[in-house]
């Protein structure tokens, strides 16, 4: 295959990717949904979609539902994939593992078919590019999911650092931790406040406070700071430690780490 043919194939691949992105919009985590809704699987992929749902998602919903269940037989790592979906905040497009598998298969077919079109135009040698595009399409949802996980993890860690102080203020005023969580979740907030809102909802539904706190660990897998917070609360309930001081000291440590991370990302060594 000549260099010109390879370049044309790559340009064509970039073109189909841009067209695909224009139809489906950018991948974004649905951080506004409460934790309990995110833990409940979607049972009807053909139900009316929200107005902001990309057109292609709505048009292909019936097909993707069947394709997702079919491909689930071939992707043999459902537990790990389910954990990654929870870590990403259960985004609309990849709300369940069946959604993820369906999009992996669909995008692999889409990119492969475009590669075949290039092969018809350029020549049979371009079939290698078609195969490469198919593999790229299959792993594109995984790449997107990884980006969403990173974004959500950073957002939760940053917000947690400044939530500790607010909790400490309420506890110092004589409120219990449960009451403090209810107070700070009444106002606006980001990803972490959205997760905390599930705690008073679960308690109001007759769920023990300790179990509601454990749900945070489940809905935020892989975020060590969330696990430490849940352990801190459990230790306080078990041993009756001074929660105010622990909240203040932990909050200061997390704020220092956030500041260090921001400075590390902002600093770039100058090239000689």
What string, H for helix and E for strand, traces the elements in order? HHHHHHHHHHHH
- The count of β-strands is 0
Main sheet specs: none
Shape: elongated
Count of individual helical segments: 12
For the record, the count of structural domains works out to 2
Structural class: mainly alpha
Rg, nearest Å: 23 Å
Poorly predicted ranges: 22-51
Strand content: under 5%
* Average pLDDT, all residues: 75
Helix content: over 70%
For the record, give the distance between the C-alpha atoms at the N and C termini, rounded to a whole number. Answer: 39 Å
Question: Could you characterize what this model shows?
Answer:
Helices cover about 75% and strands about 0% of the residues. It is mostly helical. The chain folds into 2 domains: about 5-150, no CATH class; about 155-265, Type II secretion system (T2SS), domain F (Receptor-associated Protein, Up-down Bundle). Helix 3 packs across helix 5 (about 95-120), helix 6 crosses helix 7 (about 175-185) and helix 10 (about 210-220) runs antiparallel to helix 11. About 30% of the residues are buried. Residues about 20-50 have low confidence and may be disordered.
Notable traits:
Receptor-associated Protein, single chain, 0% strand
What is the topology?
Blueprint lengths: L2 H22 L10 H5 L15 H17 L6 H10 L9 H26 L4 H46 L4 H8 L6 H6 L1 H7 L4 H11 L4 H16 L3 H24 L6
């Amino acid at each position: 295959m000549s260099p010109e043919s390879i370049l044309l194939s790559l340009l064509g691949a970039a073109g189909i990717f841009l067209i695909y992105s224009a139809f489906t919009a950018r991948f974004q985590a649905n951080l506004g949904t409460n934790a309990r809704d995110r833990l409940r699987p979607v049972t009807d992929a053909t139900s009316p979609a929200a107005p902001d749902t990309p057109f292609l998602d709505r048009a292909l919903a019936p097909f993707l539902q069947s394709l997702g269940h079919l491909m689930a037989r071939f992707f043999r790592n459902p537990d790990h994939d389910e954990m990654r979906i929870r870590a990403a905040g259960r985004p609309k497009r990849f709300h369940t593992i069946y959604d993820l598998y369906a999009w992996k298969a669909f995008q692999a077919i889409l990119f492969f078919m475009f590669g075949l079109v290039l092969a018809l135009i350029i020549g049979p040698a371009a079939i290698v590019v078609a195969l490469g595009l198919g593999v790229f399409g299959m792993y594109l949802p995984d790449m997107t999911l990884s980006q969403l996980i990173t974004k959500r993890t950073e957002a939760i860690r940053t917000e947690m650092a400044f939530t500790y102080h607010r909790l400490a203020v309420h506890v110092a005023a004589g409120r219990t931790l449960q009451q403090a969580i209810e107070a700070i979740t009444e106002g606006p907030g980001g990803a972490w406040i959205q997760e905390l809102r599930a705690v008073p909802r679960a308690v109001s539904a007759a769920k023990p406070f300790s179990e509601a706190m454990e749900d945070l660990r489940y809905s935020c897998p892989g975020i060590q700071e969330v696990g430490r917070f849940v352990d801190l609360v459990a230790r306080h309930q078990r041993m009756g430690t001074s929660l105010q001081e622990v909240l203040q000291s932990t909050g200061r440590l997390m704020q220092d780490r956030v500041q260090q991370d921001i400075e590390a990302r902002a600093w770039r060594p100058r090239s000689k």
